[in-house]
From TrEMBL, chains A, B:
Gene3D superfamilies: Aspartate Aminotransferase, domain 1, Type I PLP-dependent aspartate aminotransferase-like (Major domain). One of its GO terms (molecular function) is pyridoxal phosphate binding. Pfam families: KYNU_C. Homodimer. NCBIfam families: kynureninase (TIGR01814). Belongs to the kynureninase family. Pathway: Cofactor biosynthesis; NAD(+) biosynthesis; quinolinate from L-kynurenine: step 2/3; Amino-acid degradation; L-kynurenine degradation; L-alanine and anthranilate from L-kynurenine: step 1/1. The gene is kynU. This is Kynureninase. One of its GO terms (biological process) is quinolinate biosynthetic process. Keywords: Hydrolase, Pyridine nucleotide biosynthesis, Pyridoxal phosphate. It comes from Paracoccus alcaliphilus. Pyridoxal 5'-phosphate binds at residues 100-101, 128-131, 199, 202, 224, 254, 280.
Length: 414, 414
């Protein structure tokens, strides 16, 4: 592929891109190639406008009345349905609320509660750490429960047994970008009598997720990566409709009450997904997210997925063609069926290389101990951006600039 | 008192008010008398400016780099210390994070874990409901634990026994505005071998809370009422320094890890208050709160408390003097030692009365079934506002306008 690739050909890909008009919806700093949308998505004009209106008019002028007049109280379920469309969830199954970590706790609690005779939570050792930390905290709080981790070389499907209640899986691995087959794994897990909790942090907004189609049970994910909802924007939780009547979670705050403004003494869980709400939500952050989701209206997720794969294909081909002798080791699967929307390479000098790239306006990120990670996001990235990023990477590698002290001396904070 | 009160005298109180310059820090809609700051505090210029900068510059232009360059990652503990000063907590004991409801769950978990031989959580039946709902969810998740509720006429100090692990108390009651004696109750609870979780939602920023001085163990509270942090701004959690080494809570997400960016497989709780963090926080909402807290710099909480009591004294005296024959029944204690910063009256027509007042630009709120609730907030309210609000209340009552169908037909949503 790379042999036939020229800048002219790359520009043709941009000209033919059915999503090209969406780039204009975003605020993108001049001169920057942003390959970190898998960590924090950029601002859009509608997100900033929605936030400004929420702050200046709704809070500043309308004050307490905005809980009704601006629909603040309905935002978690309203936004939940909007996110639902992007992850293959029919309405009434998704709430936007709290953090991913808190939602994992709720989902694990509810799922384990639906499998009372079983005592094992199974998770990937390579999972994003907070998933494991929450699972660890949850099992420590429940006498008899155990957390079992998939080790390197082990397959989830071989670890299922009559003691496994819940399997917690990362749809796309945060480090390698490896994509799991949700439908196939869910089927095997169900055959073994267990339930699934899917973490979609690195797949929601990155590809054509199909929760309902896969028969998923529970899912969680964040909205500040590929969905571009703003730093730390509230997360989402999905509960399949068939589980909602029986599912219980212990963070039973007033927003999950059937009639919160009755101020009753006893808890009575709201029907359906609202029972997975807990306390009062950060409205300003939710309003930015609401604006961000407007950009997604009308986006065909199959078209998005095609562009994503074309972007990652191009990036891999160009890096291997132009930086092939510098010891970058591809961590992301070549198989489209196993690839998310990021490309990761390992390299002993990953940290200084990422710093040198950032100084030159190509923002990717570093994941300990040795991974360079690049998010190739289809809504606002051009094929020419990929070309230019790889040119910069080649230049950094060839020049040896990354060996200078200012790049090697520091340690990662984020 | 009321006999000697004239508008001239009230204006003198404003002229002599040591906090009068702070009103200019707030965005207050023209023509509105806002007596609902106990539910949602108004915006300040610094809150709006901080939010705008966070959105347009930090997110829009600096993107992922702002986690370090703008101090986003440090916001929960940075703001925690700022809130700490206002509630009598020395640095390192408060984190701003998640919702009040989620923080109650953490505090109850940690407190119960420190009293392993005891199996009762004791709470007020008149508590703000979410406290009870969370306690109910927590005890349901822990075999052997029981929730015991204080009934009407019962005294907390008479309900303590060797089985009580934790007492969950509202410092100021959300409905009546009654203030509990934190120091005295904490002493009695400690004498009985139990620990305290204080809910400060209606006292933080309303009066001179002294957590350290009272020997409190755990506390939670919100920042969107008297602290004016913005709608649904993240809540806070306090853990007394002496408990931090031993206290454990099950929402052990990555923000509470000792080294979150090591991406280790096993959880290792951060030392001190950071262990009460869980997942990624809504930064835009936190940045509005940060701006809001700037208004508090240099505010003497004893001076604040004196003005608060003078405002509520004036309000009670004027209502009784001018609306005394309309059947309003004072629910708030007259005793200063037992009064927060709100005044509540019960009245059979509370709902339409509140609606008629709102239509005339005096915003208080209704709490089911029959309470009119008015927050008298010292930072931005003038004594003349109190005078004018009572004049409007008298006019509404005298005119009978509240009996019109448009006020009586609707039901409360918030």
């Amino acid at each position: 592929m790379a042999d036939t690739l020229t800048l002219d050909r790359v520009r043709e890909l941009d000209a033919d891109d059915p999503l090209k008009s969406l780039r204009a919806a975003f605020v993108l700093p001049e001169g920057l190639i942003y390959l970190d949308g898998n960590s924090l998505g950029p601002a859009s004009e509608t997100a900033l406008a929605g936030l400004d209106r929420a702050a200046v008019q709704e809070w500043g002028q309308d004050l307490i009345r905005s809980w009704n007049s601006a629909g603040w109280f309905q935002l978690p379920l309203d936004l939940g349905d909007r996110v639902g469309r992007l992850i293959g969830a029919a309405p009434g199954q998704v709430a936007v609320t709290d953090s991913t970590s808190v939602n994992i706790f709720k989902a694990l609690s509810a799922a384990a509660g639906l499998r009372p005779g079983r005592n094992v939570i199974l998770a990937e050792g390579s999972s994003f750490p907070t998933d494991l930390y929450i699972a660890e905290g949850f099992v420590a709080s429940q006498p008899g429960l155990t957390l079992r981790l998939q080790g390197e070389g082990e397959r989830i499907e071989d670890m299922l047994g009559p003691d496994v209640a819940v399997v917690l899986l990362n749809h796309v691995n945060y480090r390698s970008g490896r994509l799991l087959d949700m439908a196939a794994l869910t089927r095997k897990i169900h055959q073994a009598g267990a339930l699934t909790v899917w973490d979609l942090c690195h797949s929601a907004g990155a590809l054509d997720v199909d929760l309902d189609g896969a028969g998923a049970d529970f899912a969680v994910g964040c909205t500040y990566k590929y969905l571009n909802g703003g730093p730390g924007a509230p997360a989402f939780v999905y509960v399949a409709e068939r589980h909602q009547a029986e599912a219980r979670q212990p963070l039973s705050g007033w927003w999950g009450h059937a009639r919160p403004f009755d101020f009753a003494t006893r808890y009575e869980g709201a029907p359906q997904i609202a029972r997975f709400l807990c306390g009062t939500q950060p409205i300003l952050s939710l309003r930015a997210l609401k604006g961000a989701l407007e950009v997604w209206e009308g986006v065909d997720m199959a078209v998005l997925r095609r562009k994503s794969l074309a972007l990652t294909d191009l990036f891999i081909a160009l890096v291997e063609n132009r930086c092939g002798d510098h010891g970058l080791d591809l961590q992301t699967p070549r198989d489209h069926r196993a690839r998310g929307s990021q490309v990761s390479f390992s390299h002993p000098a990953a940290w200084p290389l990422v710093q040198a790239l950032i100084e030159r306006g190509v923002i990717g990120d570093f994941r300990a101990p040795d991974v360079l990670r690049f998010g190739l996001t289809p809504l606002y990235l051009r094929f020419e951006d990929v070309w230019n990023a790889v040119e910069m990477l080649r230049d950094v590698l060839d020049s040896g600039v990354w060996q200078e002290a200012r790049f090697t001396a520091r340690h990662a904070v984020t």
